[in-house]
Design goal:
5-stranded mixed beta sheet, STAS_dom_sf, Transcription Regulator spoIIAA, alpha/beta, 4 helices, 5 strands, STAS_dom
Length: about 120
C-alpha cells in the first residue's frame, strides 16, 4: 500500500462543516489515521463532517470498520457525516459488494456533500 497517505481536515465553505480529505490508499496499516482524523472532527462540534475519498484509489475492508464506527458516533451526537467521491472503482465496489452504501450518506463530490440537506433535520 502507499506510504503517501495523508488526511487533511479543513473548514467547509458551508453548513458549519469540517472536510476530511483523504489522499492515498487505506488498508489495515493506515486506517487508524482516518480514525484519528474522524475522532477530531466529532470533538470539534461542527454540524457536519465530509469524508472526501476522491484521492483514494484503493481501500480494503478496514475503511468500512472506521467509517461505520464514525457514522454511528456522528449519529449519536446528532451530527451528519457524508462520504463523498468521486469514488474509484475499487472504493465503489467495496461499498456495493458489502451492501454498506445504504448505511452512509453518499455524495458525488465535496460541493454536493456540503449542500446536501441533513436527512434528520431537512436542513
Amino acid at each position: 500500500m502507499s506510504d503517501e497517505w495523508e488526511a487533511t481536515v479543513t473548514h467547509g465553505a458551508a453548513r458549519n462543516a469540517l472536510v476530511v480529505r483523504v489522499g492515498g490508499d487505506i488498508d489495515h496499516e493506515s486506517a487508524f489515521r482516518l480514525e484519528q482524523a474522524l475522532s477530531l472532527t466529532r470533538r470539534a462540534g461542527r454540524e457536519r463532517t465530509v469524508v472526501d475519498l476522491s484521492g483514494t484509489d484503493f481501500a480494503d475492508s478496514s475503511i468500512l470498520h472506521v467509517l461505520l464506527e464514525a457514522q454511528r458516533a456522528h449519529r449519536a451526537r446528532g451530527m451528519l457525516m457524508v462520504v463523498c467521491g468521486p469514488f474509484s472503482d475499487t472504493v465503489r465496489r467495496l461499498f456495493d459488494v458489502t451492501g454498506t452504501e445504504g448505511f452512509f450518506v453518499l455524495a458525488d463530490d465535496v460541493g454536493a456533500a456540503l449542500e446536501l440537506p441533513d436527512p434528520a433535520t431537512g436542513r
